[in-house]
Amino acid sequence: MAGEITETGELYSPYVGLVYMFNLIVGTGALTMPKAFATTGWLVSLILLVFLGFMSFVTTTFVVEAMAAANAQLHWKRMETHKEEEDEDSSTASDSDILTQDNYERAEKRPILSVQRRASPTLFDITDRVEMGQMASMFFSKVGVNLFYCCIITYLYGDLAIYAAAVPLSLMQVTCSAAGNDSYGVEADTKHNDTDPCWGPVRRVDAYRIYLAAFTLLLGPFTFFDVQKTKYLQILTSLMRWIAFAIMIVLALIRIGNGQGEGHPPLANFAGIRNLFGVCVYSFMCQHSLPSLITPISSKRHLTSLVLLDYALILAFYGLLSFTAIFCFRSDSLMDMYALNFARCDILGLAPVCFFLGLFPVFTISTNFPIIAVTLRNNWKTLFHREGGTYPWVVDRVVFPTITLVPPILVAFCTHDLESLVGITGAYAGTGIQYVIPAFLVFLSRRDTRLAFGYGTVNKHRSPFRHTFWVGFVLLWAFSCFLFVTANIVLTETKL
């Protein structure tokens, strides 16, 4: 019902949830996709994009099914607790502490293992927000829980490193181009080296590191405190992102329509698959945020169909963005952050629009960095937390925030190669979060559901890919990707 409140906030309609999921998946990571497309070739890129989108959809349905199974267990425990309280009240009201004959017979017939529970369909309603960490603790062993948190932490470190590099890189590209009086236009495709001058004796790499230091000093302190994303901030950043995406697509289409498109991408170039794979996995990442996104949806009757529609729209958008980019710009002129190709202004001649496109990653990423940093810090705390234990003030307020902030800043200090950062983060930690963890969650949750409620129990939110084959296929695909990416990195570095 409208206005009803859950712990995740106000409930919203399925179509609002569809928009939220679209916004969650299509983030600034999409800006690294055009260069990966141009490097790999348009046909191979399209095939891989569609296939990885399909695999992400499969594991999304796995997570939804595991969420429903976790909710069923929580609902059953509450029902059992409520029943025990009622039994205690009735026994207290009686004159004797001895069970009546009916209660005695019912207790004798109740199995020791709860195999014979009868689960109603409403038991699987997704009403409680059960985060992936909580599901891991419910279905995984202790070792599995620790591995889960290690994977999440690694991914969040990669996320922070990407964000920490993207903001200074955007600022450096825009301000150094302005200082150097570059011809503001996409035709000015001059490639700059880090050692090229920016402001007099200050090199471009020096400007990048100055901006990185300023970024750290301004946003780093938020890691030491609690911060929340407000509704209005989310609306503002989403609005800016979609305005920027729309402008880039329209400008590229105008340029192609006027016969000024310079892109001639190859059909296939298998050497670029490693980075494209990582970029695509990163760009379809949503599994770790599904509990917070799906739980508040008011009606989940057609949830799977809506998720499928979302993925189809996202595939269409990624294809449109990437194809307009690779046919508008030469492959060697596409930048790691696609928006920076529009930081020069001879298409429109409107400097404010060009500066907006060049700097929009700064605005959107800067608002997300503190939130991800706090999330990483809290995951560190959870990983080392022991039942009933508390952390000393220094450890809680200094050590955990420091180990959260320092590593990604050091990585960003050493490199601003966003394509490689996104590729490695997506290919390794992203593979774990998007494929391995959902596959194990759904497999173990199905086993626990059968043990708890019997083999005939049907989870109404079960995945369309309910056969065990799909779990094995996802795990095999994840293992194959891990081997391929590792071998590709080794061969590339050794130039074999």
TrEMBL record:
Residues 80-100 are annotated as: Disordered. The keyword Lipoprotein does not apply. It is a multi-pass membrane protein. It holds the Pfam family Aa_trans. The chain crosses the membrane at residues 12-31, 43-70, 139-158, 208-227, 239-256, 306-327, 347-373, 394-413, 425-444, 469-491. It is found in: Membrane. Its main location: membrane. GO terms for cellular component: membrane. The keyword ATP-binding does not apply. Keywords: Glycoprotein, Membrane, Transmembrane, Transmembrane helix. Residues 20-67, 210-447 form the Amino acid transporter transmembrane domain. It comes from the Eukaryota. InterPro entries: AA_transpt_TM (IPR013057). Belongs to the TMEM104 family. This is Transmembrane protein 104. It comes from Jaculus jaculus (Lesser Egyptian jerboa). The lineage of its organism: Eukaryota, Metazoa, Chordata, Craniata, Vertebrata.
